[in-house]
Write a structure and sequence with these properties.
alpha/beta; TIM Barrel; homodimer; Luciferase-like_dom (chains A, B); 8-stranded parallel beta barrel; flavoprotein (chains A, B); about 450 residues; FMN-dependent oxidoreductase (Nitrilotriacetate monooxygenase family) (chains A, B); about 40% helix
């Protein structure tokens, strides 16, 4: 089969640009309006996107003045979207540091049932002390500990999802037996972080379990992705860096004993479209002018762990920043920001403009053909299996991508015109996982 | 205003009778079929029920052969129902023993946003060692400890729900200020069970917070209800017992400084309807014949903490049962079962027939007028503000209640013909709670 692009829509209220909510047409309460989010989901589904995705963290992040803050919990929100759509995949972010495996595994199994096999889980470890303080801790656990817990969390979850054999429910009215008890398994997990008896209290779901997605690009994050992820979201600012990352994760997956084709790499892209390149750049500049410097500097100060007063708007970043090794938060995001600033010798004002658009993801202002060319180049030159589409402005940026970029890619035979499968895993060309317990029984 | 009945529909897959799934028309996978549950919700809404409700426990309870087992997580399921309905209240059960306040408060706030102010939370402490073993414990915490934790859990949740003032979000595009930071409050809760910084990462929801519901009838449970509950579900087998319970909870609420009218008492009723009383009794007998004794005895053995081999089908219960004080599980359910068996000198076989229908709730087989008479009697003689309707068979038992009992009650002026309000709290005639932080600011 011809290799085809995969597209995920990253939904972020009025758009990924932090000032998008200030545009005259922007819906000021988009983040709380389920009708609005459903409209985005329907657009993406009619355009045959593989999936849509919601980021999340169990904390109020930054100053609530800066942009729409606080958001509906993703598994709740996606359940509503599951009923408004019928084909598109639904990927929710959830933290392994601040959840219990039993509860979270059950919610994802439920979402997979309600959506008919369209659930995905973006597995995050949740950086930041403020999040930790919402859960009885004084500070976040160390980066490596968070990833160790995440790995055990996924192992427990898979056991729970597998705890009902696919054929456990027989609903035999004559015998009066609803499920065969010997096809429902206690898991008795005993590990470093968790002790869980099981079985799960939901029968096995259409996909077996949700598509496993991962978005951390640190060393720990890449190793985790290589072991568990079926799709990887990543921020790669240049083609060359994207190629290195792509090759590295595929190599690590092979080393972990997996077929590298079963790990789909999806860099983020923030398309800003115009009829001409100049028009696109003008829209980008208009958005950057709407950024409130005070909020953006506070945000940058948090991300870098540097006091705001040391970030003068018209100077470059201070020379004495810590190294990634000393960062316990979002390591790869930290390095990406610092390298971007150093490489292009940006002032703080220029840097917040660049980050305001896509937070370090590849922002691309241009014509539809220019955007399509870039996508094709990354796809064909070993940097991407598809893209995480992050419109700077929603819904207009999604609409113009769908109406103007996708037809170019379809004309080149690079993107589907119809869904071929019905589950999220089928959209990404991945097989339904077998149950670890049923396999044991069959041997 | 005339005092009117309140009705809640307790949804339980194919019906509350444990053998209902074996009837020829029963949908064998009802518990996993969101279309089926939506159909029930639409029937209840078109009949102007105040609310619908889902029980829950984070454990697979009993033998999965016995009846449809495992169920979709309630906040997920109710979000789907929120989009299929527009007026009826949506009450989900969730455990205070096996959740974190931050995550749970956020899910309920999200459900309240998505549903436009129709969320309710049935607060349970979750009995049973098997549930505890899904969360790293060897055995359940003591009954009193579970209730102490529940009280603190509710206090933390209320602080989180109140952490955004109602007017915090201003979305001022000109100034570039989305929410006023001084109207969003860190809660800094430090208690016995929880330390939570806050604020919540969801703005205050339409109802301020979900309707608080409680269903435990032990001493601890009644005290908890008196302090926090706005609606109480309870199992009361006779009018006299219902009257005592009703007076007791209202008295405790007054002692806790609350207006007793703001605590609505809703006993469960399992209506089994026939054109004649004989017809109703025949349907009841048919259901009881479908009970598989092996499963029912195992269930009873668990509930009483007595080995199954000591429960001979044609004997009465053993004389040397423990007292309620020694029970750490569902105390009031335990006492209810034992008293029912002793009072009516039931054999184990007779007892499992009685429990198979409504698990100790008032089962009532009769004509529509007989059922309406009983409801009116309880309502007017100080035993109920409304009822938790638990059809033995679904959907048919709900349909016949709606088509044949409700018209009788409406003709007597006892039940609404149209919704007057739009939120769940409005249906129950309760005021929207003010925020504790906004009150402080205003003084």
């Amino acid at each position: 089969m011809t290799r085809r692009l995969h597209f995920n829509l990253f939904i972020h209220d009025t758009g990924h640009h932090e000032a998008s909510w200030r545009l005259p047409d922007a819906h000021p309460l988009a983040h709380l309006d389920i009708d609005y989010v459903e409209r985005l989901a329907r657009i993406a589904e009619s355009a045959k996107f593989d999936s849509l995705f919601l980021a999340d963290s169990p904390v109020l992040w930054g100053d609530p003045g800066r942009r729409p803050s606080g958001s509906l919990e993703p598994t709740v929100l996606l359940t509503a979207l599951a009923r408004a759509t019928s084909r598109i995949g639904l990927i929710a972010t959830a933290s392994t540091s601040y959840n219990d495996p039993f509860n979270l595994a059950r919610r994802f199994a439920s979402l997979d049932h309600v959506s008919g096999g369209r659930a995905g889980w973006n597995i995050v470890t949740t950086a930041g002390d403020d999040a930790a303080r919402n859960f009885g801790l004084d500070a976040q656990p160390a980066h490596a500990d968070r990833y160790e817990r995440a790995a055990e969390f996924v192992e427990v979850s898979k056991k729970l999802w597998d705890s009902w054999d696919d054929d456990a429910v027989v609903a035999d009215k004559d015998r009066g037996v609803h499920a065969e008890a010997d096809r429902v398994h206690v898991i008795n997990h005993e590990g470093t972080y968790f002790r869980v008896r099981g079985p799960l209290n939901v029968p096995r779901s259409p996909q077996g379990y949700p598509l496993l997605v991962q978005a951390g690009s640190s060393e720990d994050g890449r190793d985790f992705a290589a072991r568990y992820a079926e799709a990887v979201f990543t921020a790669q600012p240049t083609l060359a860096e994207g190629q290195v990352f792509y090759a590295d994760v595929k190599r690590r997956a092979a080393e972990a004993g997996r077929d590298p084709d079963t790990v789909k790499i999806l860099p983020g892209i923030v398309p800003v479209l115009g009829e001409t390149e100049a028009q696109a750049r003008e829209l980008e500049a208009e958005l950057d002018r709407l950024i409130v410097p005070k909020y953006a500097v506070e945000q940058l100060s948090k991300q870098l762990g540097v006091p705001a007063e040391r970030l003068a708007l018209d100077d470059q970043l201070p020379a004495d920043l810590p190294s990634e090794d000393d960062i316990e938060g979002m390591k790869s995001r930290y390095t990406l920001i610092v390298e971007l600033a150093r490489r292009e010798r940006l002032t703080v004002r220029q840097l917040i403009g660049r980050l305001g658009g896509g937070r370090g993801h590849r922002t691309f202002a241009g014509t539809p053909v220019q955007v399509a060319d870039t996508i094709q180049q990354w796809f064909e030159q070993g940097a991407a299996d598809g893209f995480n589409i992050m419109p700077a402005v929603l819904p207009s940026g999604l609409e113009s991508f769908v109406e103007r970029v996708l037809p170019v890619l379809r004309a080149r035979g690079l993107f589907r015109t119809e869904y071929e499968g019905s589950t999220l895993r089928e959209h990404y060309g991945l097989a339904r996982p077998a149950s670890q317990y049923a396999l044991v029984t069959a041997q």
